[in-house]
């Protein structure tokens, strides 16, 4: 065996020389591709001519370069192959299939013999010629290369099991037409796979979202090559099809350091048919606003769970309010939860949350109810939510999808009140203070901001006559009965209970706010008031159902154990036996004769040993004695006179009653 000049075997030298020659050839091909990408002609009288002028000169070098650029092809092919692995006699249409490289790669994930027919469709003559040579060389008997317009092509069989767009959808100008055409022959159990470059919309899903600078840069760069990577194509895909799976990421570019081009992989199918929910027909009580009062539940669930002894055998009745606590009961292990409200809008809100958990993925639910906004609410509603809503809820939401465009948590009675208060804070020069208070990193910093605020300092330490005038003015404007009812859900009877304790309403509210500011860290633990101050929740500071692990529990089927009822509380209480009942502050709203009737009904419908809890704006609500006489051991868990109540801190007392003795006969 001979040796080279450096002493190495001649065979090694020849092999090394061949590798170097291959590298030089590959680099030459890459430079050819790059030259035509950046400086090549893209002219022509029609789209076919423009494609030919662009791809023709680089067709022979196309595959090698794209294998280090089009990173989404393999994950897309792997994803669809995994979903088709158990099937046979498949028909695959690869639209914009170019050189047929996708077919070659698909062989790594699924036996090509499973496909009865594979159609590689492209409008560029030069690419089709490469694909034909490849099919012949590979011996693909079931592959047909079709030089045709994807907007007009349909397989001879009339249907396709799989349709793919591999970095082609962004290069088809009439994308509505090609998607419509593809959907027209997609089989009912078929899949559409897309891999392509993209930029997000301004308000897109979190996993797609990009800053303005990145959206502008990449869209303008790809536009040079007549490639439109805007969000419209995927948005239209998701209007016509139901998303099964997607991935949003980025990949490197040959010879371009640091920059990584964004791309996505998307798998979809024809929309599935839903089912209607049971319809409850209850008229809205007089004087109710035409929407909900509360967008979230305004009772802290943590003290509830400390005394409720929730277990899988429980059937729990609760007021709906914002619905957060009803969902929390399921997460905590309750077997069945019945959530009732006489306001159809509150039922519509909880029903939407339930259906969203059943039909959507976590990020969509987070956008809807964590951020309170969703850029695709109309699409989601039409395709995934409306088919599962009752008619009453559909009638409500179909006219109010803009809630999720303007911010859900600034809607409804309390939402509007929070918005007005935020605007007032800005007018008074306190806008930045509110933001700092909401995002104070520590409890100590929060207290400092609260106590050092000019307005708070004035109320606590200013001249008493001026403070009295100021407080009375604010009370007249913001804390009158109309605002308290329509903005805070405080009815006249509850207002009277507060007055009966000898507490002016302005003092009651000041006690609430001051107690929260001094005792509860808003940024880290008090999602109630963080939401009021910012109009959204945080991932680590939100109701239980918006935490990813709890969401997964609910979505696994647990949420199916929730019954949403539009009804009067007493009627729903009479419908079945309960082990636990949450009255919230409902009894504050009732006349004493009705409260007595409710107490008697509780005695009949709550199982022996069952627990009833409630909160009251009164330090000693008069109906507590009625519940005790009905056969319950009643005790007050806490009163506001003892100090800070809980994260809401809005009530004067918190009670628990346990049913004793044998259940009474009807």
TrEMBL record:
<protein>
    <submittedName>
        <fullName>Betaine lipid synthase</fullName>
    </submittedName>
</protein>
<dbReference type="GO" id="GO:0006578">
    <property type="term" value="P:amino-acid betaine biosynthetic process"/>
</dbReference>
<dbReference type="InterPro" id="IPR029063">
    <property type="entry name" value="SAM-dependent_MTases_sf"/>
</dbReference>
<dbReference type="Pfam" id="PF11899">
    <property type="entry name" value="DUF3419"/>
</dbReference>
<dbReference type="InterPro" id="IPR021829">
    <property type="entry name" value="DUF3419"/>
</dbReference>
<dbReference type="Pfam" id="PF13489">
    <property type="entry name" value="Methyltransf_23"/>
</dbReference>
């Amino acid at each position: 065996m001979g040796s080279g000049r450096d002493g190495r075997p001649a065979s090694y030298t020849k092999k090394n020389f061949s590798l170097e020659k291959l590298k030089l050839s590959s680099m030459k091909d890459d430079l050819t591709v790059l030259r035509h990408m950046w400086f090549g002609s893209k002219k022509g009288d029609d789209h076919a001519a423009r494609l030919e002028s662009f791809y023709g000169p680089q067709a022979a070098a196309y595959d090698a370069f794209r294998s280090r650029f089009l990173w989404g092809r393999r994950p897309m092919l792997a994803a669809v192959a995994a979903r088709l692995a158990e099937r046979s006699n498949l028909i695959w249409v690869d639209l914009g299939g170019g050189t047929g490289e996708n077919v070659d790669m698909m062989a790594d994930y699924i036996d090509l013999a499973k496909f009865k027919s594979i159609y590689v469709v492209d409008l560029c003559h030069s690419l089709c010629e490469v694909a034909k040579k490849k099919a012949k060389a590979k011996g693909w008997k079931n592959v047909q290369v079709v030089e045709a317009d994807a907007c007009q092509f349909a397989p001879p069989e009339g249907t396709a099991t799989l349709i793919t767009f591999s970095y082609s959808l962004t290069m088809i100008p009439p994308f509505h037409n090609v998607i419509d055409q593809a959907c027209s022959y997609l089989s009912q159990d078929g899949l559409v796979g897309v891999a392509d470059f993209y930029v997000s919309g301004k308000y897109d899903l979190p996993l797609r979202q990009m800053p303005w600078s990145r959206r502008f840069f990449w869209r303008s760069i790809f536009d040079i090559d007549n490639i439109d990577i805007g969000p419209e194509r995927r948005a239209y895909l998701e209007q016509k099809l139901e998303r099964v799976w997607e991935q949003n990421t980025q990949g490197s570019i040959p010879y371009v350091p640091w920059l990584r081009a964004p791309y996505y992989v998307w798998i979809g199918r024809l929309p599935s048919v839903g089912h209607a929910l049971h319809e409850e027909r209850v008229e809205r009580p007089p004087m109710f606003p035409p929407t909900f009062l509360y967008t979230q539940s305004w009772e802290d669930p943590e003290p509830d769970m400390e005394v409720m002894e929730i277990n899988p055998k429980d059937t729990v009745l609760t007021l709906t309010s914002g619905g957060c606590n009803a969902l929390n009961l399921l997460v905590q292990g309750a077997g069945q939860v019945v959530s009732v409200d006489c306001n159809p809008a509150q039922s519509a809100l909880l029903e939407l949350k339930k259906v969203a958990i059943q039909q959507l993925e976590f990020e969509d639910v987070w956008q809807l109810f964590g951020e309170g906004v969703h850029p695709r609410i109309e699409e989601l509603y039409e395709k995934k939510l409306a088919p599962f809503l009752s008619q009453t809820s559909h009638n409500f939401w179909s006219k109010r999808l803009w809630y999720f465009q303007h911010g859900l948590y600034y809607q409804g009675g309390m939402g509007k009140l929070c918005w007005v208060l935020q605007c007032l804070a800005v007018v008074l020069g306190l806008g930045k203070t509110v933001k700092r208070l909401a995002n104070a990193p520590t409890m100590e910093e929060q207290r400092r901001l609260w106590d050092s605020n000019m307005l708070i300092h004035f109320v606590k330490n200013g001249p008493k006559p001026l403070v009295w005038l100021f407080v009375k003015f604010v009370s007249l404007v913001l804390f009158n009965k109309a605002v308290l009812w329509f903005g805070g859900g405080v009815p006249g009877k509850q207002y009277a209970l507060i007055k009966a304790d000898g507490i002016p309403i302005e003092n009651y509210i000041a006690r609430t706010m001051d107690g929260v500011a001094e005792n509860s860290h808003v940024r880290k633990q008090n999602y109630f008031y963080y939401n009021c101050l910012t109009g959204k929740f945080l991932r680590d500071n939100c109701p239980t159902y918006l935490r990813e692990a709890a969401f997964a529990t609910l979505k696994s089927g647990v949420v199916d154990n929730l019954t949403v009822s539009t009804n009067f509380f007493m009627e729903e209480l009479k419908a079945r036996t309960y082990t636990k009942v949450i009255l919230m502050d409902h009894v504050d709203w009732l006349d004493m004769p009705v409260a007595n009737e409710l107490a008697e009904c509780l005695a009949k419908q709550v199982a022996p040993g069952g627990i009833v809890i409630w909160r009251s704006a009164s330090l000693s609500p008069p109906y507590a004695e009625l519940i005790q006489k009905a056969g319950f051991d009643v005790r007050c868990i806490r009163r506001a006179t003892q100090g800070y109540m809980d994260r809401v801190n809005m009530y004067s007392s918190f009670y628990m009653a346990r049913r004793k003795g044998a259940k009474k006969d009807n």
